[in-house]
Amino acid sequence: MAQQLHERIQSSSMDMKLDALKDLANSSRDITFAQEFINLDGISLLTQMVESGTDFGDLLSFTLTAFVELMDHGIVSWDTFSVAFIKKIASYVCKAAMDTAVLQRSLAILESMVLNSQDLYQKVAQEITIGQLIPHLQGYGQLIALLINALFLKAPEEKRQVHAMFSICLKFSFSLVCQNVIRSNKPINDEMAHQLYVLQVLTFNLLEDRMMTKMDPQDQAQRDIIFELRRIAFDVECDSNNSGSIEKRKSMYTRDYKKLGFINHVNPAVDFTQIPPGMLALDNMLYFARHHQDAYIRIVLENSSREDKHECPFGRSSIELTKMLCEILKVGELPSENCHDFHPMFFTHDRSFEEFFCICIQLLNKTWKEMRATSEDFNKVMQVVKEQITRALTIKPNSLDQFKSRLQNLSYTEILKLRQSERMNQEDFQSRPILELREKIQPEIMELIKQQRLNRLCEGTCFRKISSRRRQDKFWYCRLSPNHKVLHYGDLEESPQGEVPHDSLQDKLPVADIKAVVTGKDCPHMKEKGALKQNKELLELAFSVLYESDEYLNFIAPDKHEYCVWTDGLNALLGKEMTSEFTRSDMDTLLNMEMKLRLLDLENIQIPEVPPPIPKEPSNYDFVYDCN
Questions:
Q1: Which strands, in side-by-side order, build the sheet including 514-519?
Q2: Residue 356 predicted with pLDDT over 90
Q3: How far is the CA of 551 from the CAs of 417, 468, 513, 554, 569, in angstroms?
Q4: Which end of the chain is less packed: N or C, by CB atoms within 10 Å?
């Protein structure tokens, strides 16, 4: 097939050539075919066809499509292409009016060239200017963004700023679109979502330089930023070289840097030599100190004045938080082709990352206090804060204010509740070993509930007497004997304040004589004429004990709780199942608590689906201790 297509795409017939190029574009996705076609020097043939400039329209479109598909397999190096080929591809991008498919393939080819070869970057950069890309922003913003990102990543230091400024322009144009969509409440389609995602990645990639830049402890300009943090926090002016002795000034600086929460109190510049987050952390701290001065001063002074080992170190927290935010937002990573995961709130502010940091550092300080944390708990606090931030981001807040509001509802207590709830609902709790454990525990829990019900019956309950005519203010008391063999009951003149002794209850009913327990409408005292005309709630509280032939002991429970206790207890005495809502609720609560306790030591341990195999019996039992 490769041989046939290799011949057909060189046909003098335009129709035959077009059909062959269509087939080639489709077949080139298969790596086996691609290998055969490349072995026939097919890539060189396609590049010659492009360089000749004789093809246009669909012919050119399918030629470029086949070229892209073949190169995606990574069989041929990008360094093998001539300057003439690069110029030809660049010319398609530079034209204001160009076929859509040709333009798309050309942008993709240029992006791949830049990413895969430093030498090709130089050649592409000479052929493409920002001005030539601007006319295509309207319809091809996503592809333009990818190309700019590739140029940005490969560019030398002196040229990166140009690409960075253009990316900011891209962000501005897309952010206007995004804000308009949010205000109009119109749905964002997949194409638009992917463009915004790519733009978000590009914007955050502008931070990569600062993130990967170490602080030079000898750089006075960088050290001045730390002096500025000290000045704003403690309202002190930078001391002149002549004020006080050197030792005194060093001692004062060390004290203040310790209060600011730096790890290195003598020279805090050393704290920013770790990459990531490098200088980006210091940039965030300075932005917070200048633009949210009251919050900054409050956090620093609040923690520096504590003497109970619960102070939150602002400097160390800011550095680790910046590193964490870069991980969450994947700063420095290339955008994925099929991802639509963007956050609208990052398009609502010119300094969105810095504002994001300001919200999160205040959250960190709040969570630290809620956890009553010490320096030993630093990593635990950071884990909770990361969970709070990622959970808040999942709802895709439209603004930074919405994000902040969401965080207020995700306190440390709420995170613990969510973790507990999710652990009970996760797949592990539906696995065979866990279900078997639940089944094994269930009879123990049921026996516990049964004993509780019988103990309550032994304590007894005061019931109100209900006649068929009217409600009377007469009471009677019933309780189970401690040996669970007899029900003692009798009338009372008034409602008792505590338990009524067995001796004062005149009547007895042996449990052995009880034949059945009936409830609701089946009770004799609910069948009497006029009884059902009373409050219908009585039906839900009524139950009767049938003994001898047609004798009944009729009850109206004071409330639903007592009704469940007594019906469960009587059914337990008769050896029947306890089926009340109260029993089901108790079973769920106690069973879940017992499961959590038993699985406490298995945190983050994978529970196997099948039991481990039983080992073979030993060949002899000589190792067993002989008691004789």
A1: 514-519, 542-547, 551-556
A2: yes
A3: 52, 17, 11, 10, 20
A4: C
Question: 322: which residues sit within 8 A by CB, 6+ positions away?
Answer: 211, 276, 277, 280, 281, 284, 357
More confident residue, 339 or 532: 339
% of residues, the chain, pLDDT over 90: 24
Ramachandran angles phi, psi of 266, nearest 5°: -80, -45
Amino acid type, 220: Q
DSSP per residue, 258-287: HHTT-S-SS-GGGGGGSTTTTHHHHHHHHH
Report helix angle 432-459 to 581-598, nearest 10. Answer: 130
Neighbours of 415 (CB within 10 A): 19
**For residue 575, is it left (φ>0), alpha (ψ between -120 and 50) or beta?**
left
Q: CA dihedral defined by 498, 499, 501, 505, rounded to 10 degrees?
A: 100
CA distance 552 to 565: 19
CA 591 to chain centre: 28
Q: Which amino acid would we find at residue 513?
A: D
Q: Which of 90, 67, 193, 187 is nearest to 142 (CA)?
A: 193
The DSSP secondary-structure symbol of 78 reads G
Q: What is the pLDDT of residue 609?
A: 74
Output the six-digit token pair for 498: 């505590």
Length in residues, the chain: 628
Tens digit of each residue's pLDDT (9 = 90 or more) over 224-246? 888 899 999 887 655 544 455 77
Q: How many CA atoms lie within 13 A of 237 on its CB side?
A: 4
Q: What is the pLDDT of residue 292?
A: 93
Per-residue tokens: 324: 């964490």
SS3 content of the chain, % helix, strand, coil (to 5): 65, 5, 30
Q: Indicate the DSSP class of residue 311.
A: -
